[in-house]
Amino acid sequence: MIKKAVLPAAGLGTRFLPATKASPKEMLPIVDKPMIQYSVEEAKGCGINDFIVITGKNKRAIEDHFDFAPELVEYLKQKGNGDLLDEIDKMKGLSFAYIRQGKPLGLGHAILCAKPFLNNASFAVLLGDDIIDPDDKLLYEMIQVHNETKAPVVALQEVAQAEVSRYGIIDGNLVKGNTYEIKSLVEKPPTDKAPSNLAVIGRYILSPDIMDILADMQPGAGGEYQLTDALNILLSERKIYGYLFKGKRYDAGDKLGFLKATIDLALKRPEFSAGLLEYIRMISNRL
Ligand code: UTP
To answer: Which residues are CB-neighbours of 209 under 8 A, at least 6 positions away?
Structure first.
């Protein structure tokens, strides 16, 4: 059983400047919810109630967001605003711990910061700026693969050849359904050197033995402690599986991806869909 999730949120969010100069990227709202809340709800849907958020400078708003807000609850009760109370209640029963990553030294280093909270058990990692369509069940399906194999599982998605240099890319063999046995991983390879177009995306089920590897590692691509490098080392000790996701994912840490996520997720909401669609049709006729 996976009981805990790590949410690395200490990155600088440079692709989203100037919005992220003093505010956390993870708090940018997609429709009416901060993007990190989509990850929390996704994990909660898989029975995960304990979250370890890796934060850094300018990230205090994340702690406030998941904190109790008794005055607000009282105010909404008095106003009889049940719908908004239900929205706020969604976070009830979840526990959040926060660890500051002194410097953004990379995803691998961010995950290592969570070690004291993980009790030597396997855990999930969700990158808040990778938004998975809430109707898809990626994390749930990855947990099933982990339960069957007892091995680490990383989420994969096919990307265009021109995009491989933006991702960690795997070499592997399809073993069953959507599951690959990974042979090796390479971080941001040049287009002509990529072993496939299967990119690692921001959902992982990791085993506690990754921590010793992360603790002993040297910085890799971009001077950062890369999770990809640690997974490569772990591969010499145990099997790691990749789970190919065929649903909808948005890279909301990128401005265009964020806009697409906002439009698609707003179109799924009954209260916005008709009006937004009408507006999109109107402007596309004008172009
Ligand atoms: P990204 O590279 O997507 O995020 O890292 P970033 O560094 O915030 O954004 P850009 O590239 O400068 O625009 C993936 C995830 O890992 C976290 C980020 O917060 C993001 O959720 N991260 C990254 C850390 O927590 N610590 C780090 O040192 C680096």
So the answer is: 234, 237, 238
Nearest to 43 by CA among 129, 125, 154: 125
110 C-beta closer than 6 A to ligand 1: yes
Q: How many domains does the chain have?
A: 1
Q: How many whole angstroms separate alpha carbon 22 and alpha carbon 13?
A: 10
Find out whether the beta carbon of 242 lies less than 6 Å from any atom of ligand 1: no
pLDDT in tens, 222-266: 788 999 999 999 999 999 999 999 999 999 999 999 999 999 999
- Sign of torsion, CA 199 142 6 55? positive
Mapped onto helix, strand or coil, the DSSP state of residue 9 is coil
What does the pLDDT look like over 85-97, one tens digit per residue?
Answer: 888 888 888 999 9
CA–centroid distance, residue 103 to ligand 1 (Å): 11
DSSP state of 195: S
Give the helix/strand (H/E) hosting 123.
strand 123-126
Closest CA to 124 of 114, 134, 133: 114
- Atom 3 of ligand 1, nearest CA residue: 253
Full domain range(s) for residue 21: 4-286
CATH number for the domain including 92?
3.90.550.10
Whole-angstrom distance, CA of residue 43 vs CA of residue 37 = 10
| Cβ neighbourhood burial of 83 (10 Å; 0-12, 13-18, 19+) | exposed
